[in-house]
Amino acid sequence: MAKKKELEVKQQLEDNEVTELEEEEVEAGEAQQGEAPVRRASTFAELGICGELVSACDAMGWKEPTGIQAEAIPHALQGRDLIGLGQTGSGKTGAFALPIIQALLKHDKPQPLFACVLSPTRELAIQIGQQFEALGSAISLRCSVLVGGVDRVQQAVSLAKRPHIVVGTPGRLLDHLTDTKGFSLNKLKYLKAIDDILNVIPKERRTYLFSATMTNKVSKLQRACLRNPVKVEVASKYSTVDTLRQEFYFVPADYKVKFYPFYLVFIEFKWFDLIKLAAYTTEGSTLRKSCEALSLIDCYLVHVLNELPGSMIMIFVRTCESTRLLALTLRNLRFKAISISGQMSQDKRLGALNRFKTKDCNILICTDVASRGLDIQGVNVVINYDIPINSKDYVHRVGRTARAGNTGYAVSLVNQYEAMWFKMIEKLLEKDIPDRKVDNAEMMILRERISDAKRIALTTMKESSGHKKKRRKTDDDDDDEEERNAPVSRKSKYRKSGRR
């Protein structure tokens, strides 16, 4: 187990490294062109955007182009391939959507299936589709969104209407492109899906690649997809906006050892074994001690939530099971919390998002499925309940707040086992994140009530898992690549991974 964990951390460390040679190749490509730098425009009209789209931008409240839009759009209108790197919430969607729609308008008769947009997650794909429809509403733009969890027949009907723009996740899009009987997404990985899609679409094309971070995977996509691209970068490689206030709480781990030392390993990496413990133990006191051992970090979380009444809050955890357990625990404590993860059906995920967007619930507990590109208005707090192993995931997580010039607050709950990962985040950002002090005696006042709430949540999940096992014999779930890559084993509903 230790060897496996070591390999996992080593892989994450490798992913945290950016291939400088590839970046130099891109910059060299730009230098060879010898083109003069494009003057920074202050309006969309000055960028060369046509009148119909300028009006659409005004209707959406886009009064002037953002930094990445001002830098990227002129190159895109010249027909160049692009790599766009910008901070979260910097307007990257508009930077590629506007040139695509304008290129479509150049045809006397708008061409069907003119552009394909790939997104790593379903929710982001749906959001991008909505942006295209809003920008193209005045010109009757048709956009089809292809994601997992939605009936394939309905999507095939939508494609048969020959939309101008297709937005989708790689696995489901490839499923429609190949239309191969018996095609399985079980073994499909994101980069392999992109590879297969590239073999199907035309060789002569324009390609835009946009991201908040430049990772090895992005570099591989660059080599596979783009030809002599222009690199547009409006921020440092990995940075957060100046309007974001960042802090962390250090959660002492000695309380966990004192209450239940035998389960220390499980607390940090396999906490969900407590579900099995609850199933096999007949002594309520044993489960109670286990919950007390796990509840200190929840005390810190509740302390933060109590200080931010009425705020729109996103809480990030590492595993799908953690989202539900934490949501149940917080609801037992009278907080309006709801969860979202790759393990949920598409309808439930969209339902949870809508409840959060309409402020029916003001706390959304999620995995990194929700960290990529989602733009939810009003989110002013992000809490890292679990510290991400991959430092770049931190940038994406905290980017859900402080968007479009607004202020935001990001707080992380760090224990001694995660301190190394948090130091890597500070190194990546090239800044020290301040530590916020709190009186541990104050935390102890909350502990008994929170441990009871968590014990009830664990019992509820144990009972729920029993019912699901009975239904699993007759029910089949429709999953896509996100769910298969989620940190939950298909063999066991509650995989022994994650912590708490």
TrEMBL record:
PANTHER family named among the record's database cross-references: ATP-DEPENDENT RNA HELICASE, ATP-DEPENDENT RNA HELICASE RHLE-RELATED
Protein name per its UniProtKB record: RNA helicase
Keywords: ATP-binding, Helicase, Hydrolase, Nucleotide-binding
GO CC, any one term: cytosol
Protein source organism: Leersia perrieri
All copies of domain DEAD-box RNA helicase Q, residue ranges: 42-70
Composition bias, Basic residues: 490-500
Coiled-coil segments: none
SUPFAM superfamilies per record: P-loop containing nucleoside triphosphate hydrolases
